[in-house]
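Dear support,

We are seeing what looks like truncated structure output for some complexes. This example has two components. We would appreciate it if you could run it in full and send us the complete token output so we can diff it against ours.
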Amino acid sequence: MVGSNGAPGAQERISALDGAAASIRGMRTYFLKRLLLIVPTLIGISVISFLIIHLAPGDPTALKFSDDQRTGNPEHIIRETRALYGLDDPLPVQYVRWLKRVFTLDFGVSLRDQRPVVDKLKERIPVSLKLSGISLVLAFLLAVPLGVYAAVRQHTVGERFTTVLLFAGYSLPSFWVATMAIVYLGGGDFWNVFPVYGLRSSGSETWPWWQQLQDEVWHLILPVACMTYYALAVLSRYMRTGMLETIRQDYVRTARAKGLTETRVIYRHALRNSVIPLVTLLADVFPALIGGSIVIETLFSIPGMGALSSEAVQSRDYPLLMGIFTVSAFLTLAGVLISDLLYTLVDPRIAYEKRAVV
Amino acid sequence: MKNERSSEGYWRILMRQFRRSRASLAALGIILVFFGIAAAADLIANDKPIIMKYRGEIFFPVLKDYAVRLGISRWQSQFQNVTFKEFTRSNFKEGDWARFAPIPYSPKEVSLSVARQNPSSQHWFGTDDLGRDVASRVVHGSRVSLSVGFVAVSIYLVIGLVVGALAGYYGGVPDIIASRLIEIMMTIPTFFLIITIVAFLPQSIFNIMLVIGVTNWPTIARLTRGEVLKAKSLEYVVAANALGASGLRTVFRHILPNTLAPVLVAATFGVASAILIESALSFLGFGVSESTASWGAMLLTARQLLPGYWWLTAFPGVAIFLTVLSYNLVGEGLRDAADPRLRG
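Here is the complete output from our reference environment:
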């Protein structure tokens, strides 16, 4: 972490005010540099994904026609299709053509159903965003109090129990938990409590809004729970470590020594600094937010980005694959940048002019 | 040396600190047990007898099988293309005997007459839809999981250490290139990338190891780069340079050994996550072929038979959970041991 140790004293605060203008300037240069560096990164990402996808064996046109009985002479049709999509041009030519179109947000059409890739992404991203968004917000909201509890009540029975439970959750494969949830709660041989297919019941469009809402919440409970427990396990462990480090700091002892109540010491003084590691984690969490969870979405048949990725891979849908790669990478980069900005908001001690651009 | 404590080497201190955590020690024990099971899988679960006496001669069919598969030996003519269980039943006479493994089924032994059986004294963990013995498959599945974990992590450790060390030590252009590469790899959704490559390659366990290896090195590279940057200005590095050590020698002989502790911690957690990735891949049908006894592939079979047949889900799931949990506990123990702030 960058910055001085502990909170600044009165003297330092005055000089910090003097340095504020300089630091804003430093911050601006820092973010400008970061923005410029996005360009080579993005190009790199697109080149890498383009190469992987195009050098891979498995001809999309052959795959497209392999199960189609109507086409009498597949040889010649395959050749025509290849020409139509420009699959016969040299790779660099194909890449430049693709890059030019990407600038206008045109990723071409899906080889599978001829629909524009952008439309498909637009349809799927909100679904994943909703699913992952809800789980992440829940995880963050629960992780903070849990982490604080585990740190403050260290070595008590309750703390041991919570820590062990969270550690177990951290090692539990979510696809196994999801399978078990479907078996035991989703209408297997046991209880039939939750629906396990999609996000709403069929025919629910005609229901009154409150019934639709109830239906949707009902559908979301299992997938959200399966996604939340893991994120919660990860986040609360960070929170606990952050808190454990913070409550050993001198300024916390000072706060106690001047007679503040324990609640005030923990929640007003210590909490602020111990949340910082969680903020940095936001950047890591961002890809999952847009990319969705391939496992959970596939298992629960939720039409999000995760399920779309899996379909795209299975049908060797090159344009769709490229679209997913590029859009997720771009949004992830944006996420990293945003979390960097947030970082300065929660921790004003960070001086950007000193921070190397990496 | 009078003061023993101060002469203690770094790794010895690490081990002493590590031993203080009982949970981590127990986890290390579990890992060793799993390794034992994986190494001795053929002696624990096999459809061939470990040792048998036939017409006055002693045979070791399990060991013989190894030799045959290595190509250095051939089956005796009377054992060619025989099922040993059948053979012992029909050909054995007075004085002949065979000692089978505790689980006398091979992981690929299909027997439709006993399909989908509950756990029993015959089949400890029950049987799957093809009548394959679940216990035998769980035992042999440990080989897949453990080898994936180790090989994949070794691959990315090597890449990550070299890239990170060179970038950190030399700075400048190599660092810019390496850092961009790291950033590129970290922005690409890893699991999606793995699925894409694995789906395009022929289905094999080695390809999975390789793909996990080449997609996960950035974490190690970033970590190593940071550690090397920190160490670069320390006195012992300056001393090495002053003594005329070349750049490469300084990095790999002097700096890297001193930065290994955090890398080791990351690698231990990495084994856990590689095992999880392999089982998730197999579970989604992108991994090893279904006939291979892999815990993830077994869960895929179980999923296709849902709902019901709890034993098909429970046993491989518990195996994955226990293994991953153990590696995470060991990783945690190592991290705490390497953290001087927690040293008491």
